[in-house]
Amino acid sequence: MNKLHSLKLEETKKNREKAQSIFKNLRDKICSTLEEVENQGSHKKNSFISNVWNRKGGGGGESNNLRGAVIEKSGVHLSTVFGSLPLGALDSDKSVNTDQFWATGISVIVHPKNPFAPSVHMNLRMLVTNDYWFGGGADITPMLHSKRKSSDPDTLIFHDSMRHACEKYPSIKYEKLKENCDEYFYIKHRNERRGLGGIFFDKLKSEETSQDLLFLNDVGYNFIESYKKILVSNISKDWNDDHRAEQLHYRGRYVEFNLMYDKGTIFGLKTGGNIDSILSSLPPIVSW
Amino acid sequence: MNKLHSLKLEETKKNREKAQSIFKNLRDKICSTLEEVENQGSHKKNSFISNVWNRKGGGGGESNNLRGAVIEKSGVHLSTVFGSLPLGALDSDKSVNTDQFWATGISVIVHPKNPFAPSVHMNLRMLVTNDYWFGGGADITPMLHSKRKSSDPDTLIFHDSMRHACEKYPSIKYEKLKENCDEYFYIKHRNERRGLGGIFFDKLKSEETSQDLLFLNDVGYNFIESYKKILVSNISKDWNDDHRAEQLHYRGRYVEFNLMYDKGTIFGLKTGGNIDSILSSLPPIVSW
């Protein structure tokens, strides 16, 4: 092994550790924020329950699940997995000419009980093969028909926060990431969008990895700060059976997307990830 | 066109019409039987609601949906579709070297309300490309853990009826069809079966097409006769919230299979079928 190659490996290792550390901090921040909202004005303390799992083939993770009164279902998951790359796990990406991979990531999903409060999802990841890069995104899904429009105040707050996370970084083009998101969260067979978008990126690797890592961290913080605001403004609103029925209906669309089109779900299932973590994105109660 | 070819086309046409006629009769029989069970001892008459749809590209169908008190959700659908065959619609079947198809079929799904009553599914179809053949199957899915075993009385009744439908026909090997079914309804990522099986067949074409058509008809009749017996014996049983929770849980597995692995769903969506018919297999209320 020559010196240059060895330096490159050392640098990659440091960045891997930094990514893991950022994701752990985000997990703490996100879980504590959601618990705070869940337990506001309540004596009963609902908390995230943590489960550690190991992956046959290499690595493992930690799933954190909350089933509450305000937060009907939430999953905040960390994982670091590595080993042989199963055929087709990275889609049909011909540029990845290796059979080994290492990946670390955080994924967050929140399905609140109050139909006025939108569901949100975020994930951030670092993938290492013969090269390394970052991917992820965050998006919002209002569950009432009347709120499923770009002018909805919650959606505006969410988009603003994502724009804010992007704007600090010259190499990040917010409009492109927003466009990616709209393209990605699309339910082909219904010819409709899953939600109202956000940002989505993959194969991110700018000249300064430290900037990419700061960007990931900003996405995570902006995500949870804006979502806290959105949650707090909605969870006391009165709702009835009709609102609930509408919510369960759109949750069905959410399931259709996740099981039929979501690459994260497919990657997770194909690489022998933890099923409960992967499918914890599915809403608690759904109707068709 | 030579005479032999012309005779063959004429024969195929007759068989297509016979298949359509058999499926229509079965639709009548199945809908009336389910309505009878739904409305037993009740003044309120819940009936199937029929909707006709046309397919862009050729053909169309009729979906019949019931949302009742006993039958929480049921779909009984007929369709006859034809035109150009979308790439990949017939899986990776290299033996089909044509780009035109004609298909007619019936599909039935029943999700009863009482958690003690199992869900069932059946579909029968005739597919014509440069050749023609039959496919289909019927299977049972108990939704309580305690009933998810081969010795469960409902499952025994169901399997007996399928065996009975097969045994009259020397070219039909029941054990093979049962094995196919177990293989097919398998949720790979969970390493578990969707339900408790039944029969499943494809590319069926014996020397006597009239016998194949009689077999399809027998599968349909045996299916609804045995299921009526199973329904009637379960719908008066007392159930509580725990039973319901278990039912919603296993319905989630049902959704996972249908959206991720079911070839009928994939074929339907890829050939521009009617989404409401295709996805009417999804249970009314589901939990994860």
Automatic annotation (TrEMBL), chains A, B:
Keywords for the protein's UniProt record, in alphabetical order: Heme biosynthesis, Oxidoreductase, Porphyrin biosynthesis
Record carries keyword Oxidoreductase: yes
Keyword Nucleotide-binding attached: no
GO biological process: protoporphyrinogen IX biosynthetic process
Biochemical pathway: Porphyrin-containing compound metabolism; protoporphyrin-IX biosynthesis; protoporphyrinogen-IX from coproporphyrinogen-III (O2 route): step 1/1
GO molecular function: coproporphyrinogen oxidase activity
Enzyme Commission (EC) number: 1.3.3.3
Listed GO CC annotations: cytoplasm
A Pfam family recorded for this sequence: Coprogen_oxidas
InterPro entries xrefs: Coprogen_oxidase_aer, Coprogen_oxidase_aer_sf
Subunit structure and binding partners: Homodimer.
Family of the protein in this entry: Belongs to the aerobic coproporphyrinogen-III oxidase family.
Official protein name in the record: coproporphyrinogen oxidase
